[in-house]
Amino acid sequence: MTRHGKNCTAGAVYTYHEKRKDTAASGYGTQSVRLGKDAIKDFDCCCLSLQPCRDPVVTEDGYIYEKEAILQYILHQKTEIAKKMKAYEKQKQALKSEGQLESKSEERQRAEKFRQRENNIVSKPINPFTSGKSKDDESQKGSTSSDTSAGESSSSSALPSFWIPSLTPEAKPTLVKKPSKTVFCPMSGRPLKMSDLISVRFTPLDPSLDRVALLTRQDRYVCAVTKDTLGNSVPSAVLRPS
Q1: pLDDT at 140
Q2: What is the distance between the alpha carbons of residues 61 and 188, in angstroms, rounded to a whole number?
Q3: Confidence check: pLDDT of 154 > 70
Q4: Please, what's the largest Cα pairwise distance for the chain?
Q5: 128, burial (CB in 10 Å: exposed 0-12, middle 13-18, buried 19+)
Q6: C-alpha pair distances (Å), 163 with each of 158, 159, 166
C-alpha cells in the first residue's frame, strides 16, 4: 500500500478502512467504544437506583440493592402479578361460558337431527301410476340443483370478495397465559424473596465523617478485618449471621 492508499477513493474494492470511516461519519452500524470509569457502577451502589445505598441489602447471588428500592420493586411486581391473575381468571370464566353455550347449541342440533330422522320414518302411500314420473322429475331436479350448486361453488371460489365485511378475516383476542406468582430478581432473573435479602453493614473509612461528606469521597469503606480500602477491583464478601 502506498503512502496515500488509505485516502484513495478510486479503488474498486470497498476497504475495511473506508467502511469504518463511513460508519463513524454516519452514526449507523455497530460501533465499539471503550467505556470509561464513570460508566461503571461503584460496588456499593444500588443496582436499581444506581446511587450509594443508605440501607444496603444483598441477594444470594451477590447483587446489592437499596432496601427501600428493592422492596418497592417486589411490591410492584406482586401488584402486576395480581392484575394479570385477575385478567386470566376473567378470561377463564368467559371461555367457560362460551363452552357451555357451544355445548347447549350442539345438544340442540343433535335433538333437531333426531326429530328430523324420526319424522322421515313415517312412510307415505306410494302411487304406482306416478312413481316413475316422480323419479324422473326428482332426477332432473337433482341434476339441475347439482349444476346450480357447482356453478355457485365455482363462482364463489373464482371471485373471493375480500372487501366484503362478512368475508374479512377476524382478529381474535390474544389469550392471556397464566402468570407465575414468583417474583424474579431484576439482575440475575432468579426467584427473589424478602427473606433471602441479607443486610450489609459497611465499615466506613473515617467514622467521624457524616453521610454527605462520605458520599463525596471516592474511597468510602474498608474491610472490617484487614482495613483495606474496598473498591470495584477488590473482591469482597458478606458474612451472613447464622
Answers
A1: 60
A2: 7
A3: no
A4: 124
A5: exposed
A6: 15, 11, 9
Give the 3-state secondary structure of residue 25: helix
In this structure, are residues 193 and 183 in contact, taking their beta carbons and an 8 Å threshold? yes
CB-based burial label for 32 (10 Å; 0-12, 13-18, 19+): exposed
Please check the confidence at residue 241 and state whether its pLDDT lies above 90: no
Examine the pLDDT at 79 and tell me if it is beyond 90.
yes
SS3 of residue 52 by DSSP: strand
**Whole-number Cα distances in Å, 57 to 16, 94, 230, 231, 240:** 49, 44, 17, 17, 11
**Residues paired with residue 191 on neighbouring β-strands, in sequence order:** 184
Number of helices followed by number of strands (H, E) in the chain: 4, 5
pLDDT tens digit sequence for 180-231: 999 999 999 999 998 889 999 988 887 777 776 777 777 788 888 888 888 8
Listed residue (86, 82, 87) closest to 183, CA to CA: 82
By CB neighbour count within 10 A (0-12 exposed, 13-18 middle, 19+ buried), where does 46 fall? buried
Q: pLDDT class for 157, splitting at 50, 70, 90?
A: low
Residue indicated by cell numbers 447471588: 61
What are residue 125's phi and psi, to 5 degrees?
A: -65, 135
Tell me the three state secondary structure of residue 176: coil
